[in-house]
């Protein structure tokens, strides 16, 4: 409900009604709405961490792994109202710090590992500055969720993610990598 409607507009009564339990039962498990939001966000971040690991293990190559992550981001983006992110930053700064820590630790680690994998496979350029490219990729992904930069009235989030990703892939791949990428997405190999 928070992802669809934002945090402020959802009440504990709404949560109890949607869950099919009494408000008293909700309060037996969560001290207040802040704790509920925090636990929900931790659950979501833990799930995201598991998905990143699954994509790494279940992908034939670094490019497939990267594209699975992008598809997952698109799916997540379809279910997250940007208002929730804004409200979390403004009204729940401690929770937002956990999100920021997750991005800096887990996301950066996953992006860096993907870059290293691609270099080892010969599909990414060997001359990449990993810390610069990983940070740039994280910033690219963050911009998609900032409505001021890509207003929903003017941009389709999935198209933005795909364009940014194609641009990123073209910038980091070797000719071999572009050949591999062309099997997954529509890009020119030349």
Summarize the structure.
This protein is mainly alpha-helical and 190 residues long.
List its salient traits.
Homeodomain-like_sf, TetR/AcrR family transcriptional regulator, mainly alpha, 190 residues, DNA binding, Tetracycline Repressor, domain 2, 10 helices
Describe the structure.
The protein starts with a helix and ends in an 8-residue tail after the last helix. The mean pLDDT is 92. The longest helix is centred in the middle third of the chain and has 29 residues, at 93-121. Helices cover 74% and strands 0% of the residues. The chain has helices at 2-5, 12-19, 23-29, 33-58, 62-79, 82-91, 93-121, 130-144, 157-172, 175-182. It has a single domain (32-182), classed as Tetracycline Repressor, domain 2. It is elongated. By secondary structure, the chain is an all-alpha fold. The protein has ten helices and no strands. Helix 4 packs parallel to helix 7 (93-121) and helix 7 crosses helix 8.
What's the helix and strand layout?
Layout: H1 2-5, H2 12-19, H3 23-29, H4 33-58, H5 62-79, H6 82-91, H7 93-121, H8 130-144, H9 157-172, H10 175-182
Helix pairs in contact: 2-3, 4-5, 4-7, 5-7, 5-9, 6-7, 7-8, 8-9
InterPro entries: Homeodomain-like_sf, HTH-type_Tx_Regulator, HTH_TetR, Tet_transcr_reg_TetR-rel_C_sf
Keywords: DNA-binding
GO molecular function: DNA binding
């Amino acid at each position: 409900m928070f992802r669809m409607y934002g945090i402020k507009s959802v009440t504990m009564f709404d949560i109890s009604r949607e869950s099919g339990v009494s408000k008293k039962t909700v309060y037996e498990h969560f001290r207040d709405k802040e704790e509920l939001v925090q636990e929900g966000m931790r659950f979501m971040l833990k799930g995201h961490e598991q998905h990143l690991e699954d994509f790494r293990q279940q992908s034939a190559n670094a490019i497939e792994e990267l594209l699975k992550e992008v598809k997952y981001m698109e799916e997540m983006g379809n279910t997250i109202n940007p208002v929730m992110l804004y409200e979390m930053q403004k009204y729940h700064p401690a929770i937002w710090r956990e999100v920021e820590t997750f991005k800096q630790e887990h996301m950066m680690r996953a992006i860096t590992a993907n870059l290293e994998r691609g270099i080892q496979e010969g599909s990414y350029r060997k001359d990449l500055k990993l810390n610069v490219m990983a940070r740039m990729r994280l910033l690219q992904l963050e911009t998609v969720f900032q409505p001021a930069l890509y207003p929903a009235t003017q941009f389709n989030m999935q198209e933005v993610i795909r364009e940014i990703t194609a641009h990123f892939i073209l910038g980091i791949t070797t000719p071999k990598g572009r050949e591999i990428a062309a099997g997954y997405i529509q890009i020119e190999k030349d």
